[in-house]
Design a protein that fits this description.
The complex is a heterodimer of chains A (795) and B (174). Chain A folds into three domains: 32-141 and 207-255 and 262-295, Aldehyde oxidase/xanthine dehydrogenase, a/b hammerhead (Aldehyde Oxidoreductase, domain 3, Alpha-Beta Complex); 302-474 and 640-794, 2-Layer Sandwich (Aldehyde Oxidoreductase, domain 4); 490-636, Aldehyde oxidase/xanthine dehydrogenase, molybdopterin binding domain (Aldehyde Oxidoreductase, domain 4, 2-Layer Sandwich), CATH 3.30.365. Helices cover 29% and strands 23% of the residues of chain A. Chain A has 21 helices and 28 strands. Chain A has a seven-stranded mixed beta sheet, with helices on both faces. Chain A has a five-stranded mixed beta sheet with strand order 7-15-14-13-8, with helices on both faces. In chain A, strands 18-26-27-28 form a four-stranded mixed beta sheet, with helices on both faces. In chain A, helix 11 (378-396) runs parallel beside helix 20 and helix 19 (678-697) crosses helix 20. The longest helix of chain A is centred in the C-terminal third of the chain and has 28 residues, at 556-583. The longest helix of chain B has 14 residues, at 125-138. Classes of the chains: A alpha+beta (795), B alpha+beta (174). The structure holds FE2/S2 (inorganic) cluster (2 copies). The site of one FE2/S2 (inorganic) cluster has 11 residues of chain B, from loops.
Amino acid sequence: MTMTENRQNSVIGTRQLRREDPALLTGEAKFTNDLNLPGALHLSILRSPHAHAKIVSIDTAAAKASPGVVAVYTGAELQSQWAGPMPCAWPVTPDMKNPPHFPLAASKVCYVGDGVVAVLATSESASRDALDLIDVEYKVLKAVVDVEEALSDANIIHEDLGTNKSYTWNLKIEATEGCVEDAFQKAAFKVSERYVQQRLLPMAMEPRAVAAVPQPFGGDITLYSSTQIPHILKVMAALTLGIPEHQVRVVAPSVGGGFGSKLDVYAEELLCMALARKHSLPVRWVEERSENSMATIHGRGQVQYVELAADKSGKLTAVRVRIKADMGAYLQLVTPGVPILGAFLYAGVYDIPLAYDFSCDGIFTTLTPTDAYRGAGRPEATYAIESAMDALARAMKIDPLELRKRNFIQKEQFPYTAFSGLTYDSGDHLQAAEKAAGLADYAGIRAQQAKQNVPGAKKRLGIGMSSYFEMCGLAPSRVLASLNYGAGGWEAATVRVLPTCKVQVVTGTSPHGQGHETSWAMIASEKLGIPQEDIDVLHSDTAISPLGLDTYGSRSLPVGGVAIAGACDKVIDKARLIAAHQLECSADDLEFAGGVFSVKGSPDRAVPMAAIAFAAFTAHNLPDGLEPNLEAQYTYDPPNFSWPFGTHMCVLEVDTETGQIEILKYVAVDDCGVQINPLIVEGQVHGGVIQGLAQALFEEAVYDTDGNLKTTTLAEYLVPAASDVPSITTAHTVTPSPTNQLGVKGIGEAGTIGAASTVINAVVDALSGIGVTSMPMPASPQTVWRAIQSAAQAK
Amino acid sequence: MRHDEPRHDIRAQGESESYIMVHIKVSITVNGTQQEKDVEPRTLLVHFLRDQLQLTGTNIGCDTSSCGACTIHLDGEAVKSCTVLAAQADGGTVTTIEGLSKDGVMHPMQQAFMENHGLQCGYCTPGMVMASIGLLNENPNPTEEEVRLGLEGNLCRCTGYHNIVKSVLAAAKK
Ligand code: FES
Ligand code: FES
């Protein structure tokens, strides 16, 4: 029996309150910067005020003499600390250009915020105060801010590379050679669109914080970091610092949000480790918000050219995509791979022939490096196809929902082998779209629009939608290998039944708000028939959970959760042998339910898990050859990505005089297969939707032409407040994934993937009657107003 | 917010002769306990709570008094503790997130956040809970819109606010 069947008395699918909450609600939880480390030195970093400059000289004498300062280091002085440059784990092409990147710049700075000098002092204020006393002479070079201009190579950032282009990555799938071009020649309708995915600041509410604690006699070192990836970080830090891996322990204490921004190996982590070893003292660092804006990775940053060809009924016949992706100044951990994660999704949820032509240039600029930010490539792709579908519907003068219905992959076609060769596990797009249309009152809104959106109307009504696929649950290791990714996609779990039948579940996932402790205990409880309150979940410390690949890409449940179920199966298999031994029957004659093994047909011959756990511990009377103790480790390498999907709809009004947008309703219908804990699923959708909506309406990392970031604080960068955003109507359909025993798919990024195009499509829908056919993000009142004005002038 | 004149008790405490740190003595009642401490004049209340009293439940999320993660109660009013000097709180009464639960039972607002999944990573949460209690003190029966406006100064990146608003409305009904 799989967990997707027969759910009576099951804990799966119930709204369990989170066990994480009391500690977080009472201040008991410890974030990295809450750790008390007596004697720790504080690191502060002097950062480049220039986007592009040569370092001519650095004078640190005054800083060294400043009260409380212990040491001051330039990049050149620390160069011998590094066994290698900072890692990029995703060389997407064999000839990808990757400039060496070290924790401090030695001779040249390449973005505002690039680290130049490290100061160690006995207090945070002393180390920060000393930064003002450092004198750096720069020879300023021309900033390279625009990703498309960068391609001209008029100003080359990394001279040794000879170009600003890091790579070109192609995915051209044609049934017959030239068929894409052919399809465009013959198309009854085609659209050709340009979209800009503005740079975003992830803005996790907890700024990054790091503390490295050395054990001088023996060489071990523990790194505490506000990270999503303690396991990957351990390997990478060991390699970069040249420390044997078994001497490095990484702990992620409570982590205050990540959204991809803490999925990286950062200069400050390496600096704290190197300097802690050098000084044989703990070294800690905490980011100021303005540093977070400049020196933590940015998201998005793409220019997209999207072309769709369709026959006269609107059926898509070919898709052509060109991407200019802004890498920023350097390649961080997975920077080059982010647009590639979207490369497979530019046909969205639609049934297209083998006629797909995708190409992406990864391009350096003198801006903060980009990397994975919630959705990573997939929100960008979804935005492009879903906005282009609306453009196609306008070109055809048909309803956008109708156009989508004509193109959806049909329910019966699943599992569906896509043009790319990837298999979409399960789906029912029509059902999700119809459910969303019902909840948003699609027909009613269209009727209301006909009345309201008359010429001269002050407030125009719009409805927009997005039907999305989230390719997530990174990922089958072999697929990752084919994409040149530097690691596998498995996840590990250990399930340990203690002598008194209490359980430890050890996971390689590393939660930072997703409630894994609650959900993983639910899975183990369901499998083992042991109450949730008897189950503890251990994570985020490489000494306790040595194997893991951490949390990103909506992978935790469909990979890590399934690994736990697999480890439970192994525990049950072993327990079954002990039960059979005790009941003097064959293991095959036993059935297991509710934590009790019983002989089939004679339920009174039974033994509970508690008795087996104790027997496994005493080992007085075990079957011959069976190891004592009841514990199993299991590593799950998924056979496929998981493919959550859904349709979002947004109803809004645009004030044509002020450009103000008022959202009247936001409906999210998401299908992530079987839901373990609907309370948590809804929370993920709410947060994801608002992050996507924020890209559509509020947020943008604004640079001036000299490469200065103009939005470094939360006063300038408009993370929405409660008063800026609506409540969300959530609903779901349930299409279990056939590829894992839980039937689950990921949900962490779905909201963000669906939301931006939903909102912008609604804005354009409201204004298309007065000539507005596109809307740049963020659609601030000024931007909307200007679009209305220029459409009026064009008439 | 209080602007009482702090008592000046100036002492030299030098690591070198040119490095004279001026300290002020403050007396602040925090979570029911009177705390007498020496602080630098520039010490913010949030740093006093976190660094000198080890009350690390109050978080710091920005340096422009924009995020509200540091919200506490000073003399019964919700304030951002990064906007107040410790010296300004001298003689005052402070409640932090650590001081809310009584006899191991969480405050109704904390319970409402738990019951309505009003938190994910929990970083904004202490400030959000303190601000929400302040909001209900002023307006015991708010509408959804009033809750949203009342929490304008507290940012959350995880929840999209939906369940925070729900939590506050539920607490109002308790
Ligand atoms: S720390 Fe952000 S408002 Fe106080
Ligand atoms: S719960 Fe993470 S910032 Fe609010």
